[in-house]
Amino acid sequence: MTTTALNATPLLDPEVETPFDILEPLVQTAPVVFASPHSGHDYPASFVAASQLDPVSLRRSEDAFVDELYEQAPHFGTPLIRAHFPRAYADPNREPWELDPDMFDERLPGWVNTTSPRVRAGLGTVAKVVTDGAEIYAGKITFIEAQSRVEHCYKPYHAALDALLQRTHEQFGTYLLIDCHSMPSIGGPMDRDPGDNRVDMVLGDANGTACTQRVTNLAHQVLRDMGYRVVLNTPYAGGFTTRNYGKPFENKHALQIEVNRALYMDEQTITRSDGFAKLAQDLGRLIEALVGIDQSLLQR
Q: Full-prediction pTM beyond 0.90?
């Protein structure tokens, strides 16, 4: 396994020197790419200083330790890309320019998407709130700040992910992107299920439009056989990444997997729990099943 760390250009924010890295297998042997977009925890000092929240509260928006849960993927012959910048700083699972105009001290350019459901929930590309609904900033921020985050973190991450997927497609004639996430054990105030206890896993294939049902069914079956409670597309059907890269009619598939955080971590202190090792082992069995899928099932 090798690690590739790429710096972004231009360097508009020197506090985030390495926005992501890629864990590469010695030889890629399967048309599968794993991505962990929300587990980054390199918090720029200026961002923390501008926030009215304490560091632990900021971290509650992270999919903490998800990159570690899937870091065995290269041993199964597939790459894993890991964002290092935190989700609360810039969210790669959004369109590049989903911004809430109320957050800024100036009028936003007309091409910015200011009306999406994510923006209305306070969870745009530059989030207004963290998972529990608490507002991040005490005051307004500048558009130049948001632009810096998109140019320095968001775009390099997606450029690298796109390159990985294109390379995989050229080698195998298909790809399967597994976008790896975790979810609070109880629906938050900004979610579609506020106050509800959640199942163990949610598989999101954009309601069947981003991934062949053969893959979704396989993942569902493997997880259920291990005793997990699994549902499809509720409350998470898949974000920007799933919908942008999942094009089954081109033999390009994307599946989002949400893991209940109570299975592996203390959600208040952001620390691993005793369940971490078992979940990592079980996800290893899922990875093995996905990389072993008959590749003809991914092609039309």
A: yes
